[in-house]
Design brief:
Length: 355
């Protein structure tokens, strides 16, 4: 249900109501009551009503007609300490709270999350699964499943509940779950198995089915950095320009690129010349340095972020020439490349055009 400032609302879990003064976020709103005080409430604990008591009564009656009579909200308070962890539970509740060990047992499916929960329940009868119920439970609500006598609960242990959570709008999705109903039948004959539960406001045995912290989906993707944002903006800008039908000219770096912004260039003479027969050391060094300079110039044109030059170890002449060139080049920093991959035979060059 969507709310906005100025909406008249009724409280679901207590008498009274008021007018929404402001909405903090997707979960919390401040409600102005009769004496003028503004009190924070969870949006799930509010019901939008009309401007008059007649409208309020009619709205509540209409809600009651379409609502599932077996479904009711939990007494959940956002961020309250002592509440059980967010997730799905099977609640086993003595029907007579004064006769914890004698009365029949009510079974509820509890959705203690901010999402709607789709479910299917299967009981285990002599090793075979039998579906008994399916449907959905609203956020922070409980759904009555059925009542059983204590001598009828042998089907529940080792049963199965399949669950999928859904949050409308902006949300954090979680994985679906297939959870076993795991509890020892003997526990229903022990009074300490039924402590008071704050969500139900009753004494109950809460059997965990699926906790949200165990179902979280970790987002995967590239780390967002200033360079990445700048690059994406350049891509977007380029995409909005009028397409140029001029054939693309092949770049010197195309065959060396690891991705759009990084290239790895092998400067060994055998990679740059088809034949080195008759070439002196001076001539080979000139070929290597000429190719290195052309790569650096093209890297500036294409706004590369990193270049890796593999020069080998040898007598160190080529590396020294490269370092001399880099020391006199503004806007770059350079380091020995990763030893585990290149040994001492490569140099990494980083470009900092924003400096």
């Amino acid at each position: 249900m969507k709310f906005k400032p100025g909406d008249r609302v009724a409280f679901l879990n207590e008498k009274g109501g008021g007018v929404i003064a402001r909405i903090v976020d997707e979960k919390i709103a401040y409600v102005s009551i009769e004496d003028g005080f503004e009190i924070p409430y969870a949006l799930t604990d509010l019901l939008k009503v009309g401007d008059s008591m007649a409208d309020m009564t009619r709205h509540i009656e209409e809600e009651d007609e379409v609502a599932n009579p077996d479904q009711s909200p939990l007494f959940s308070v956002p961020n309250k300490l002592g509440q059980i962890a967010a997730g799905a539970y099977l609640a086993i509740v003595p029907a007579d709270q004064e006769q914890l060990l004698q009365s029949p047992l009510d079974f509820y499916l509890v959705n203690h999350t901010d999402s709607e929960m789709l479910f299917g329940i299967y009981l285990n009868r002599s090793g075979n699964f039998h579906g008994i119920e399916y449907g959905f439970v609203e956020a922070d609500s409980k759904l009555f499943i059925r009542q059983d006598e204590r001598n009828q609960i042998e089907d529940w242990p080792n049963g199965l509940v399949q669950i999928m959570f859904f949050g409308p709008g902006k949300t954090v999705p979680v994985k679906p779950a297939s959870a076993s109903i795991s509890f020892k039948p003997v526990k229903i004959y022990k009074e300490d198995s039924f402590p008071f539960d704050a969500l139900l406001r009753k004494k109950a045995m809460m059997v965990p089915l699926a906790l949200l912290e165990d179902l979280a989906i970790k987002a995967e993707g590239t780390e967002v950095t200033t360079e990445n944002i700048k690059f994406l903006n350049e891509k977007i800008t380029a995409g909005t320009r009028k397409q140029d039908n001029t054939p693309k000219v092949e770049s010197l770096l195309d065959k060396h690129k690891v991705d759009d912004r990084i290239a790895e260039v092998d400067l060994h003479i055998t990679e740059l010349s088809d034949s080195i027969s008759g070439l002196s050391n001076v001539e080979m060094l000139k070929i290597q340095m000429d190719y290195f300079r052309r790569c650096m110039e093209q890297a500036e044109v294409e706004k590369m972020s990193k270049m890796i030059f593999i020069h080998g170890v040898g007598n160190g002449t080529l590396k020294n020439e490269i370092l001399r060139y880099l020391r006199n080049t503004p806007g770059v920093e350079f380091y020995d490349a990763a030893y585990a991959r290149y040994g001492m035979g490569a140099t990494e060059v980083f470009f900092y055009r924003n400096k």
